[in-house]
Amino acid sequence: MVFLKKSSVLILPHQKSIRNWTSSIDGEPGFLREVLDSLSKLDDIDKHCNLTFDSMSIKKQILWGVKEGKFIGFCDLGNELDLEGTETLATEALVFMLVSLNGKWKLPIGYFFLNKITAVTQAELVKTALTLTDNAGLTVWGITCDGAYSNLATMKILGCEFENKKYDDIKCWFNHPVNNSKVYFIPDACHNLILAGADWPGVLMCRSTPGRLNIWAAGPPRRGPMNIN
User: Fold this and answer.
1) What range defines the domain where residue 134 resides?
2) Which part of the chain is the Transposable element P transposase-like RNase H domain (predicted)?
């Protein structure tokens, strides 16, 4: 960024200008009401979307927020919720984002500072996200996340069933908490391949056929045979 500012390739605004622009928006942790209000004004055809969420590790640190007038860096779910204690340092940020199915927009609708979130808490946040998007007139057809254990446990709490079942018996959807429509769970395919690589060292080739993914490995599996359907 420093190189770009000092060159004529791309003229960027000063950091203070960016801070002034962003300070006019309520960007506190929690669900972003202003974003949802903006999405509610879209045409009906552009209101079909998919909900994605993921967590990322952040550095443990305490900073003084000049605008907030308080120390920041602790667990914060917004809306004055206190599920993990205000004195617990946050180790990760959980972000919810909507991705349009018919249009070209994608926007974050909320973020939370946490310390190893539980599946129960995450399931409640998903329900809240679906409720708020429904209130904004948006139609969420599916949810995408990676294959972390807490995410799979969250989907089971919401109503999905995909353990110890035959392929045809898998239930990859759950009922919407407001309108009772089906919301489909769509696992992150790229992350699933990473998990497959961990179980099958030295993967040589992957071939996709309708409804099935075949993997050939150079070495024996670490935890027994695995089929990905």
Assistant:
1) 45-200
2) 28-159
Tally of structural domains, the chain = 1
Question: CA nearest 203: which of 226, 219, 214, 224?
Answer: 219
Whole-angstrom distance, CA of residue 84 vs CA of residue 90: 10
Q: In angstroms, what is the C-alpha Rg of the chain?
A: 21
Query: 174, 129, 144: which is closest to 39 by C-alpha?
Result: 129
Distance (Å, whole) CA 204 – CA 226: 15
Q: What pLDDT, in 10s, does the model give residues 25-79?
A: 666 889 999 999 999 999 999 999 999 999 999 888 888 877 777 788 888 888 6
Q: Are 218 and 202 in contact (CB under 8 A)?
A: yes
Residue 18 lies in a domain: no
The answer to whether the CB of 75 falls within 8 A of the CB of 84 is yes
In a domain, 33, yes or no: no
Model's pTM, two decimal places? 0.75
Q: Edge-to-edge strands of the sheet including 173-175?
A: 30-31, 106-114, 92-100, 48-57, 139-145, 182-187, 173-175
Buried-state track 108-141, b at ≥16 Cβ within 10 A, e below 16: ebbbbbbeebebebbbbbbbbbbebbbebebebe
Contact 136, 48 (CB under 8 A): no
Q: Is residue 103 part of a domain?
A: yes
In angstroms, rounded to a whole number, what is the distance separating the alpha carbons of residues 110 and 36?
A: 10
In a domain, 136, yes or no: yes
